């Protein structure tokens, strides 16, 4: 991992041997109704999205501050594959272009993304190299009982 020095508001460079990731949230809410999850309690079942332009502005600002890695903090970044693909395409086009360092990204995905090779490829091309996935159970009856629809049949 490239560790770029972070610059604080006063313009002082802070050398880093390992940098914490910058944080970007592209959406809020979750369309699923998993009965164990608190996300729908405080953010609701309707996902709201930032525009691709706003997401890219935030990524550029974090890059300019010296971050070499960014955590996309959506609770399920790929819940809406169309929106995720739009963002990943913009990141891919920007990342490492015009002499910029290549940034790495992390996010949370549902395990059902393993069935979507094109989405995983888009993640890789954009620099999303770490994915956190919750595996609640491999038992279909348990997944049905807790209404974990994204993981059913995986």
Mean of the pLDDT scores?
84
**Count of DSSP-assigned helices:** 5
Biggest β-sheet strands, sense, barrel: 4 strands, parallel
Total strands: the figure is: 8
Report strand %: 15-25%
C-alpha Rg (nearest Å): 17 Å
- The percentage helix is 25-40%
The N- to C-terminal Cα distance equals 32 Å
Series of secondary-structure elements, N-terminal to C-terminal: EEEEHEHEHEHEH
Strand order of the largest sheet: 3-6-7-8
**Morphology:** elongated
Instruction: Specify the structural class.
Output: alpha/beta
User: pLDDT below 50 for ≥5 consecutive residues: which ranges?
Assistant: none
Q: Care to describe what's here?
A:
The chain is of the alpha/beta class and 154 residues long. Helix 3 runs parallel beside helix 4. 32% of the residues lie in helices and 18% in strands. The protein contains five helices and eight strands, in the order E-E-E-E-H-E-H-E-H-E-H-E-H.
């Amino acid at each position: 991992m490239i560790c770029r020095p972070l610059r604080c508001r006063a313009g002082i460079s802070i050398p880093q041997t390992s940098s914490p990731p910058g944080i970007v949230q592209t959406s809020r809410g979750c369309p699923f109704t998993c009965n164990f999850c608190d996300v729908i309690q405080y953010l609701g079942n309707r996902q709201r999205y930032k525009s691709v332009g706003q997401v890219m502005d935030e990524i550029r600002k974090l890059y300019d501050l010296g971050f070499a890695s960014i955590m996309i903090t959506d609770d399920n970044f790929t819940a809406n594959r169309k929106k995720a693909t739009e963002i990943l395409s913009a990141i891919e086009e920007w990342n490492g272009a015009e002499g910029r360092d290549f940034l790495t990204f992390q996010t949370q995905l549902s395990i059902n993304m393993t069935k979507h090779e094109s989405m995983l490829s888009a993640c890789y091309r954009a620099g999303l190299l770490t994915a956190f996935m919750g595996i609640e159970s491999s038992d279909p009856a348990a997944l049905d009982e807790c209404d974990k629809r994204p993981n059913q049949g995986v």
